[in-house]
Specification:
Blueprint (H helix, E strand, L loop, with lengths): L2 H12 L5 H12 L4 H8 L3 H22 L1 H28 L4 H19 L1
Length: about 120
């Protein structure tokens, strides 16, 4: 995963554990696409100060992920749910081809609905 995307994802998971300034600086830099100079000017500090705060915050995010693994676990669960949906679709397709069972059809629809609901939440 590209670093920018990874930091953005980690910010979603662990942003509340950062200081307000770190969270704001990362948001400006990664989400709003501000330059270091723009952030420094808006915040009234040096460009180097902004860079240092961003680097410290990035390191904290990666350290939290290393210890807690929430983002990795989320990606694994999402992948598993997508596989469950694919399997349910295959079962449904086989059911349609080889003898329609309303019970099998209803169950596969329910499985897909539950998995989709979990993916979207």
């Amino acid at each position: 995963m590209a670093k920018n995307l990874e930091v953005t994802v980690l910010l979603d998971f662990y942003g509340d554990m950062l200081t307000d300034n770190q969270r704001n600086f990362l948001g400006y830099y990664y989400n709003d696409d501000f330059s270091l100079s723009e952030i420094a000017e808006n915040e009234g500090i040096t460009r180097q100060g902004v860079r240092d705060a961003i680097k410290r915050a990035e390191n904290q995010l990666f350290e939290m992920e290393s210890r807690l693994g929430l983002a990795k676990r989320f990606r694994e669960m999402r992948k598993g749910l997508e596989e469950i949906m694919d399997c349910a679709a295959e079962i449904s397709e086989c059911n349609m081809r080889y003898g329609l069972s309303r019970e099998i059809n209803d169950t596969t629809v329910k499985i897909k609905s539950i998995a989709l609901g979990l993916i979207e939440s």
